[in-house]
C-alpha cells in the first residue's frame, strides 16, 4: 500500500496519481487489481449507488457501511473516505469523534472534507490527531445548493485568487492532498505548482498531479447524467442491460435452465422414489 509520503514523491517525480471511487467489494477488488494508487469512497455514493438526487442525504453510517466493503475488496490500497454532508460543520471536538469512529470502523487511510474557510480548523484538528486529511476545493457538491448548482468554479480572477489562497491554507493546515473539482485547467496548473502536496483533479484538466473519476461515470454503469469532463472507458451498463434482458427472455422461453445447469439424481434412486 502506498503512503502519503509516496504520493508526495510521485508528485515530485512527475508520476501521475490515479484515483477512482468505489463503493462495494467487487468495485474495490477490480480497482486494486488494476493497480490504482488510491480509492475514494466518495459520497457520490448517494447518487450513483443509492439513487438520491444529491450527496446531501448520505449519512456517516452509509459511508462506514460501504467503506468496510471497499476495504475488504482492496486490503492493500490507500483508501480515502468522504466525511458526508453535515458531519464536520459542528463543534470541532464532535467532528474529531466522528472522524475517529470512521477511521476505526472502516480501517481507511484518510478522510476527505470539502471547502476551506470554516473547514481549515477541521483539517488541522484531524491532522493533529493523526488522521490524514484530503481537502476538496472548486466545485463542492455538498454545497451545490449554496453555489447555485453544479457549475465550473474559479473562472474569474477574483474567484481564482481565493481558490489559490484556499489551496495554500489547506496545505498549511496539514492536508495530505487536495481534490480540485471543475475548475479551469490554467488554475489547476497554478495551484499544482504552488503546492507541495499533490492535487487530484476531476474536471480540472491535465495539469493536476493526479486524476479521479467516479466509478459509474468512467464505466458508464447506471443511467445517470454523465458530466462533460468524463471519458467513458467502458460501457458496462450496456452489458448489464443486455445480460438481464437475455436472462429474462431465456426464463420466459424455457430455454434456461437446461440439463446442463441442473442437478441429476441416479436412475436407481429415482426408481425407488416412484416405487
Ligand atoms: O464523492 C466523490 O465521488 C468525490 C469525487 C468526485 C472527488 O468527491
Ligand atoms: Na464527494
CATH topology of the largest domain: TIM Barrel
Mean pLDDT: 97
Q: Count the strands? A: 8
Helix and strand element order: HEHEHHEHEHEHHEHEEHHH
Instruction: Record the strand order, biggest sheet.
Output: 1-2-3-4-5-6-7-8
Count helical runs. Answer: 12
Tally of structural domains = 2
The CATH architecture category of the largest domain equals Alpha-Beta Barrel
Quickly give the structural class. Answer: alpha/beta
Which overall shape is indicated by the principal axes computed on the Cα atoms?
elongated
User: What is the beta-strand fraction?
Assistant: 5-15%
Ligands, deduplicated: 3-methyl-2-oxobutanoic acid, sodium ion
Polypeptide structure, described:
The chain has 275 residues and is of the alpha/beta class. It has two domains: 4-234, Alpha-Beta Barrel (TIM Barrel); 239-274, no CATH class. The protein is built from twelve helices and eight strands. It has helices at 4-12, 25-34, 45-48, 60-73, 92-106, 120-128, 144-147, 157-173, 185-194, 215-218, 236-253, 267-274; strands at 17-21, 38-41, 78-82, 110-114, 133-138, 177-181, 199-202, 210-213. Strands 1-2-3-4-5-6-7-8 form an eight-stranded parallel beta barrel, surrounded by seven helices. Helix 5 links the parallel strand 3 and strand 4 (110-114). Helix 5 (92-106) packs across helix 6 (120-128). The longest helix is centred in the last third of the chain and has 18 residues, at 236-253. 3-methyl-2-oxobutanoic acid (KIV) binds at residues 21, 40, 42-44, 82, 179, 181, 202, 212, 214. Sodium ion binds next to loops.
Amino acid at each position: 500500500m502506498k503512503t502519503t509520503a509516496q504520493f508526495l514523491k510521485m508528485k515530485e517525480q512527475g508520476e501521475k496519481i490515479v484515483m477512482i471511487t468505489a463503493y462495494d467489494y467487487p468495485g474495490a477488488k477490480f480497482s486494486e487489481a488494476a493497480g490504482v494508487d488510491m480509492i475514494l469512497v466518495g459520497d457520490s455514493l448517494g447518487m450513483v449507488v443509492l439513487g438520491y438526487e444529491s450527496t446531501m442525504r448520505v449519512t456517516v453510517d452509509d459511508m462506514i457501511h460501504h467503506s468496510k466493503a471497499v476495504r475488504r475488496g482492496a486490503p492493500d490500497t490507500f483508501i480515502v473516505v468522504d466525511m458526508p454532508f453535515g458531519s464536520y460543520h459542528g463543534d470541532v471536538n464532535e467532528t474529531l469523534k466522528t472522524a475517529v469512529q470512521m477511521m476505526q470502523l472502516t480501517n481507511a487511510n484518510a478522510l476527505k472534507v470539502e471547502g476551506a474557510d470554516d473547514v481549515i480548523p477541521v483539517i488541522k484538528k484531524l491532522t493533529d490527531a493523526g488522521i490524514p486529511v484530503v481537502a476538496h476545493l472548486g466545485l463542492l457538491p455538498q454545497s451545490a445548493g449554496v453555489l447555485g448548482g453544479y457549475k465550473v468554479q474559479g473562472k474569474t480572477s477574483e474567484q481564482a485568487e481565493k481558490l489559490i489562497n484556499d489551496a495554500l491554507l489547506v496545505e498549511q493546515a496539514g492536508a495530505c492532498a487536495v481534490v480540485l473539482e471543475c475548475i479551469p485547467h490554467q488554475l489547476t496548473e497554478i495551484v499544482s505548482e504552488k503546492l507541495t502536496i499533490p492535487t487530484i483533479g476531476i474536471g480540472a484538466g491535465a495539469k493536476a498531479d493526479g486524476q479521479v473519476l467516479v466509478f459509474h461515470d468512467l464505466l458508464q454503469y447506471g443511467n445517470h447524467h454523465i458530466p462533460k469532463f468524463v471519458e467513458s472507458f467502458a460501457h458496462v451498463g450496456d452489458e448489464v442491460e443486455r445480460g438481464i434482458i437475455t436472462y429474462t427472455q431465456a426464463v420466459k422461453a424455457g430455454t434456461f435452465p437446461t440439463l446442463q445447469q441442473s442437478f441429476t439424481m441416479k436412475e436407481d434412486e429415482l426408481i425407488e422414489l416412484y416405487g
